[in-house]
Amino acid sequence: MVAVQHKKDGRSRILAAARSLFDNYGFHQTSMAELAMAAQVSVGQIYRLFKSKEDIIEAIVHDDADQWCQDMEEIRTRLDAGERTIEETFEQLFRHSIDEEKEALSFDILAEGFRNPAVGATVSAMCVRFRSFIRYFACAANDRLSGEALDAAEEVTLACLFGLGHRSLSRPKLGAGSTARRSAQMLVAALRGVQ
């Protein structure tokens, strides 16, 4: 039991340190020695838990996807309970995506997904998990959506989530809250307008 807990603690420390280092310095610019020092573990411990830095990226994406799906499940529950309108639901989704603290790491992960098929597959699997929630929310905005229209609603919403998650380089004029609120209003109006 102690060994399992020690392994979990080491894994958590490695992933936390990796998030910080990869975000600040980049994935390829961070050495395993720097990661070990920041996580207060040995390089050997990192390699006992992860095969490579790519494995660490995959673990970060997987952990983030698990957390994001839990958050979306809670958002759906609140929508179903009548505690949130559909506009408030999309606003919360967009607020979640607009996280400038994680933006650089997210760019690095996406770039690695194009270079590394395993990381790309992990990102794709994450998106598959998101799509069922997105479809659900789109149908809550317009219960007539089906077929190609529903597929398009899914694509546009996913594009909004990705785009809003990487908006700081465009020097936005609106703050995060206003952007999330207005984007939600516009998306819901567009979804409701589809016949």
Automatic annotation (TrEMBL):
Superkingdom assignment: Bacteria
Gene3D superfamilies (alphabetical): Tetracycline Repressor, domain 2
PROSITE patterns for this protein: HTH_TETR_2
InterPro entries on file: Homeodomain-like_sf, HTH-type_TetR-like_transc_reg, HTH_TetR
DNA-binding region positions on the chain: 31-50
The entry's keywords: DNA-binding, Transcription, Transcription regulation
Any matching Pfam family: TetR_N
HTH tetR-type domain ranges (all copies): 8-68
Protein name: Helix-turn-helix domain-containing protein
Organism: Sphingobium cyanobacteriorum
